[in-house]
């Protein structure tokens, strides 16, 4: 059997560990492997599906990014896109596909399965918002980046008695903001799931000053909603092929820092962590779980399974239907959000 491997959507540390595990397990089972370059774009354009050898995956375990390249191309938005993708895979001798990605990539993978092409997924997104699974490739490393940034920002915030606003990724959910904020000791964490008003932010800052705390660290997820700021920033709606607004351009961190300084008179600075959160070498957890799930995906596809995805549940690898993982966005529950509020 020839197994294709594809990485789609935003890159995340640990993708190469997953590619390596799928390929190495496939080779061990006596199969051949093809790499699909640049996500789903590689199934819609010619010349982007290539033979992979053991040499191609040597030394890639600690590398960030993806050796296969990625894109946000969406075959579901192209007329007959899924049929075209399947035809091109078949034309290149690919019998079955392992798609590594988040909700967008996995929705396309599910569509290929529905159209009769054997496809298995692997969960990846630094946003950590796929349903059912306790683990998504890249999240652990991203939380580490936020934690390290907050440790560094604490010392300079304290030295200058400033308010530091730190904008982190998180389109629809606040997993990176909350977990990074808790690990890095943020004083206030603002996430999409729980709306906060500018008045509440200002009140919080005054309360801290009143208690003799001369600096504050606010972590805000890029997709968070602060009603007073929506009016200021409104209107910018550049979207990608999956219809998502480019939130980094919305600039909630900048807007918030500007308003905080105006309302309180406290000297305020903003740091936008942006794509730093997706770069660099994966953490041991991301490497280990990318490896476990990647190897399982290879076993599944080689065993004739399709429309399924290995995930982590109750600390173990389990296999569930792809459709379940993309059925809804997993949001931060209230109990967890409240953990961040103990330290305000
Ligand atoms: O989906 C992951 C993610 O990192 C989001 O948190 C963020 O909004 C988006 O990707 C950024 O995408 P791009 O790399 O296209 O700017």
Describe the structure in your own words.
- This protein is α/β, with parallel strands linked by helices and 344 residues long.
- It folds into two domains: 2-138 and 282-325, Rossmann fold; 142-278, Phosphofructokinase domain (Rossmann fold).
- The protein has helices spanning 15-28, 41-44, 81-91, 103-114, 139-160, 175-183, 198-210, 227-233, 252-264, 284-302, 322-326, 334-341; strands spanning 2-7, 32-36, 49-52, 96-101, 119-123, 163-168, 188-190, 216-221, 268-272, 308-313, 316-321.
- The radius of gyration is 21 Å and the shape is elongated.
- 6-O-phosphono-beta-D-fructofuranose binds at residues 10, 102, 125-127, 169-171, 222, 240, 246-248, 278.
Task: Provide key terms for this protein.
single chain, 344 residues, alpha/beta, Rossmann fold, 12 helices, 11 strands, elongated, binds 6-O-phosphono-beta-D-fructofuranose
Write a compact overview of the structure shown.
With 344 residues, this protein is of the alpha/beta class.
Widest beta sheet: strand line-up: 3-2-1-4-5
Mean pLDDT: 95
Please identify the top-level CATH class of the largest domain: Alpha Beta
Low-pLDDT windows of residues? none
Straight-line distance between termini? 56 Å
Largest pleated sheet: 5 strands, mixed
- Count the domains: 2
Assembly state: single chain
Order of helices and strands: EHEHEHEHEHEHEHEHHEHEEHH
Tell me, briefly, the overall form.
Answer: elongated
Q: Give the count of helical stretches.
A: 12
For the secondary structure, the number of strands is: 11
Strand content: 15-25%
Approximately how much helix is present in the residues?
25-40%
CATH-derived topology of the largest domain: Rossmann fold
